[in-house]
Design a protein that fits this description.
Elements: E1 2-8, H1 12-18, E2 26-30, H2 36-42, E3 52-55, E4 58-60, E5 71-75, H3 82-91
Parallel strand pairs: 1-5
Antiparallel strand pairs: 1-2, 3-4, 3-5
Length: about 90
């Protein structure tokens, strides 16, 4: 297991709260070697629920492997400006 700090925004918060998952700078333990894609599934969310992921304050692709002590923030569709969303969509597989 690895330790991360996890946050989620907008409509993701109530979805996660229903699953008793804290998502506001919350300390969390997750299995090693998870990509963001697998982490989203681990949380019980769909890929369509997440438009972008910030890892340590940088937008990175969903196929990025999460490392110990990473800070992860999930952003739902519409949560980032359009010009950034276009870039993320192109590079977020």
């Amino acid at each position: 297991m690895i330790n991360i700090i996890f946050s989620a925004f907008s409509f993701l918060k109530p979805k996660l709260k229903e699953k008793n998952i804290e998502c506001s700078n919350s300390k969390m333990q997750i299995p090693e070697n998870l990509t963001v894609i697998h982490f989203i599934e681990y949380l019980g969310l769909s890929q369509e629920d997440v438009e972008a992921v910030f890892i340590n304050h940088k937008i990175l692709p969903k196929n990025t492997v999460i490392k110990d002590e990473d800070k992860i923030a999930l952003v739902p569709p519409g949560g980032i400006p359009n010009h950034i969303a276009a870039y993320v969509g192109k590079n977020n597989t």
